[in-house]
Amino acid sequence: MDASIDEKSQALESMIQQTGHRGLDRVRARVKDGWIVLWGQVPSYYLKQLAQEAVRPLAIGLQIRNELRVNQ
Question: Does pLDDT of 1 surpass 60?
Answer without folding.
Answer: no
